Amino acid sequence: MSFTFPRVDKNKPGYSAEQVDNFLAQARGQFTSPVEGGISAHDVRNTEFDLVHGGYAPDVIDAAMDKLEDSFASREIQRQKTAKGSYALDDRLARVLELVRGRVERPRKKRFSSTGLLLRGYSRKQVDALCEHIARHLDSGASIGMDDVRRVVFNAKRGGYVEAQVDAFIDRVIEALQIEQNR
Known about the structure:
The protein has 183 residues and is mainly α. 60% of the residues lie in helices and 7% in strands.
């Protein structure tokens, strides 16, 4: 199955068309005929494609993957709500928000583990700025867009935050925003 996405110039890196097409075919199958243990919103969010010369334009694929993730998340949330009731969804949101609040309420420069002085990690200043933006959303309902969280890019700095911890935190924030949008 082939999808129609624009490609980058032959000399520029883009996502492997074969990998993208294969993943989207699997996702389409899962979406039209859901199977227990199949592709989930989490799987869509964490899928990566190899960069190859002349591949699909990354920005277009990233946007398509975001829409696909939102579709899967919406369906999963509605399925949970139907199966277990809205109270279960509220409980799930409360548990995720408790984890998120636990991080954003920590002092600046101490929200995540440090890589140490010899290794590089995400810029503490930039991650802390995102955490403060998320805290404003949680405390006062200040607007925060899904793309503000999804597309954030942090500079690498010596002694920065451990990337895996920050990435897991971002996943939880996205999950909370998806639940908020689909309640």
